[in-house]
Specification:
The protein is mainly α. It has five helices and no strands.
Length: about 130
């Protein structure tokens, strides 16, 4: 019946939506845990503005996932990844929003890793949608 099965996986555009499908709920969970975990038990910031930021960003991400918006997922990943990289730099240099968010060393490491990943996935997704 199926003589040939394609070994080609999903496009980078589709991978952006898949990435956001996993990442958006993690943002919401991060925001909730920031309010619940005692600061002494957390390696990362638990400041209210930081938690609200995660909740709002996660909600936007979930909305894009529910709408199945590939273009929206690409933009989200590029923008949020860039914001994460900015937060890492800001945390290391003391620039805004480091003090407001109460950024800690673990935050910086996570921001670099997630930021590079999201910008990379977003870039490849944007590139895959560009006209030839």
């Amino acid at each position: 019946m199926l003589d040939h099965v394609s070994t080609v996986g999903p496009s980078w555009a589709t991978r952006n939506l898949q990435t956001l499908t996993v990442f958006a709920p993690l943002l919401v969970l991060t925001g909730i845990l920031g309010f619940v975990l005692p600061p002494a038990l957390s390696l990362m910031s638990g400041e209210t503005p930081y938690n609200v930021f995660h909740l709002l960003a996660g909600a936007v991400g979930l909305l894009l996932v529910l709408r199945r918006s590939i273009a929206g997922a690409i933009v989200f990943n590029l923008v949020f990844g860039s914001i994460d990289l900015w937060q890492a730099l800001a945390g290391l240099t003391g620039m805004f929003p480091a003090q407001l968010f109460g950024l800690r060393p673990a935050d910086h490491a996570v921001h670099v890793l997630i930021g590079l990943f999201l910008v990379g996935v977003g870039y490849l997704g944007k590139k895959s949608l560009a006209p030839l």
